[in-house]
Amino acid sequence: MSLEKFGIYEGINEIIATTRTGESINSAPLGIRYFNKKAYVMAYSDTHTFANLKESGVLVANVIHDPVIFAISSFDDLAREYYVDGKYPILKDALSYVVFSTSISGKRVDLSFIEGKVLRKEVRAINRGLNAIIEACIYGTRYLAFGSDELKNRVVYYLSIAEKCGSNQEKKAIELIKMYLDI
């Protein structure tokens, strides 16, 4: 299956991964690595995402452009109000989603297509503020895990770009990231 029609192209694509076990839903930004028509993610064994993948074997990739959702889900699980009721945990604001079955080998999680749907087509130029929020979230989660000043400095650097280049949504995300990281 070609994932391009769902907005997932060759390279590393940042999506909001949602997983479920029982009534518990986990949300987390993940980079889907998509090369030669094969998709996989890297998941760390000490995360809710990894535990849910082991138990359920299903990952939903939500393609989304909302920096606030990226910020919240980087550091916390999204509330139920963010989801559509249904068989899979799909975000209301997703542009598209793809449901994958998973096969775990160490940290690598291979993804196999089950189903997907384009919900909205949105034409949008690249916004440096949104990209900077994504980078700040990535380094922010690493900062929480490892506590390095270098990682904190990278977060601050990317937040300054988001402040300069972003919309009001990116500015809301900046405040959330600062709150979660206490910086």
Task: Please characterize this protein's 3D structure.
- The protein is α+β, with helices and mostly antiparallel strands.
- Helix 2 packs parallel to helix 3 (128-146) and helix 2 packs parallel to helix 5 (168-181).
- The longest helix has 19 residues, at 128-146.
- The chain folds into two domains: 4-118, Pnp Oxidase, Chain A, CATH 2.30.110.10; 128-181, Methane Monooxygenase Hydroxylase, Chain G, domain 1, CATH 1.20.58.
- The strands form two sheets. The chain has a six-stranded antiparallel barrel with strand order 1-2-3-8-7-4. A two-stranded antiparallel sheet has the order 5-6.
- Helices cover 37% and strands 32% of the residues.
Whole-number radius of gyration? 16 Å
What is the CATH superfamily label of the largest domain? Electron Transport, Fmn-binding Protein, Chain A
Number of helices: 5
Mean pLDDT: 95
Q: In CATH terms, what is the architecture of the largest domain?
A: Roll
- Whole-number total of structural domains: 2
Give the overall shape, derived from the CA principal axes: globular
Terminal CA distance? 43 Å
CATH class of the largest domain: Mainly Beta
Q: What is the CATH T-level topology of the largest domain?
A: Pnp Oxidase, Chain A
Q: Report the strand count.
A: 8
- Spans of at least 5 consecutive residues whose pLDDT stays below 50 are none
Work out the strand percent.
Answer: 25-35%
Widest beta sheet: strand line-up = 1-2-3-8-7-4
Which class best fits the helix and strand makeup? Answer: alpha+beta
The biggest beta sheet, please?
6 strands, antiparallel, barrel
What is the N-to-C order of secondary-structure elements (H for helix, E for strand)? EEEHEHEEEEHHH
Share of residues in helices: 25-40%
